[in-house]
Design brief:
Layout (H helix, E strand, L loop, with lengths): L1 H58 L10 H4 L3 H21 L5 H5 L1 H26 L7 H29 L1 H5 L1 E6 L3 H11 L6 E3 L15 H9 L5 E4 L6 H13 L3 E4 L11 E6 L2 E6 L7 H36 L5 E7 L5 E7 L25 H8 L7 H7 L3 E3 L6 H10 L12 E3 L1 H4 L8 H13 L3 H11 L8
Helix pairs in contact: 1-3, 1-6, 3-5, 5-6, 9-10, 11-12, 11-13
Amino acid sequence: MKGTSHTAVKKHGAPRAVARAGSARQRDVKVRRILSVAILGDATVIILGLLLGFWIRFGSGWLSWLHQDARESRRELGDYLGLLVLGCAYFLLSLAYTRLYQVRYILRPNRFTAHMLRTACFWLAIYLGTSLFLKFDPPISRAYAIISFVTASVGLVGWRFLFAGAASASGTAEALRQRLTVVGSSPDAARIIRAVQGDRRQPYALTHPLTEGEFNPYNPSCDELHRLISAGETDIILLADLDRRREDILDIANACERGNVEFKLVPDYFQVLISGLHLETISGMPILGVTALPLDRFLNRMIKRLIDIVGALVGLAISAPVMFLCAILVKKESPGPVFFGQERVGRSGTRFKMFKIRSMKPDAGQSDHLNQSTLREDPRVLRIGKVMRKWNLDEVPQFWNVLVGDMSLVGPRPERSYHVEVLSSQIPHYNARHAAKPGITGWAQVNGLRGDTDLGERVRCDLWYLENWSVWLDFQIMAMTFLSRKNAY
């Protein structure tokens, strides 16, 4: 038996191991090549951006009013050559330090853009800060640094989108994707598979994708997973439910370790969904705990509130003529008040009155409790109301709610109290939405989850926003609000 087993391993195990090792080496070579091209491309674009910034500042004559003396107006490229090289090196090191040279950012330039803009701000601070300590001659012009920040950032965004498109068109992206095996029959498994299969820029390729759009759970035995791993047919095994025995989970994890396959799992026991998990210790014992939300930090709340005040003042000033015109059209079509206030639930369950331009008939409130959201082709909606709701014009009085502190520009949309009571008992973690102020717009709304859509998905979007809040995300959502018309009725 021993001899037979040894022979079988030699005949079958070795070729599989060799094939898998060869496949891994080929992928590593391709990854290194594509990252090398990305770094060289970034360096070229950054240098061109810095050169363009130099020309705009010193060569174009557009900013001659900034020159304090004649010598500054005659800066030659040779004077700044060392500073350009230093700026490029700082930028590349900043991108590497913030871990932006990963395959997932190559294939998903939209995510690269969001993180790169923060990295560029970090670069600008370091670049200007260095000049203060080292006293360069000539010193770095602050106007030049700010202009170069813009030109280099715009160039990087354009280049990365072109690069991602070229990688996808040439088939290189397929070779770079890691093969992902999702194990389990839970809703999380279906959601992960649909998300991966629905996004061609994902850095993963499913080994068991949807069949004709339908989710077919993959629940193999441990022996079948061992075969999958030893045959080199997967790079990542994701266990999406924990219904298996503890011994089986440990066996799968050990098999992945032996086969150099990544093992990941969805923590079913932590469906709190209001923040990430972090490792901490109590008396030396490692435990998983729930981290604080970004908006639990005082500084973040102050920054968001400052943006809200400025945005609300600007919004009220700009929208005043629009509100006046809408008021005339509403009054012309339907008798009754132009504005109306409605009680909504805000942060930590507090009640407040939210204001809107009336877009429905005066008696619409009598049947308001029957549906959580306005239905498509709702007969209560006025003709002008359809236009206002499509372009979010009925929401503009809420800038006042933002100014007085009841709402924020961006956040989960507030609901009526009787709907909150019902939905909190039907949808898990619904009340976690009230960890922050409600918003005029939100991540769920710009993703089309408004009106008569899946409330569970809407809540998940709201909670994702609370977990991942940043100033940049708020500005992104505000910009997307003007472009997103899906399910606006």
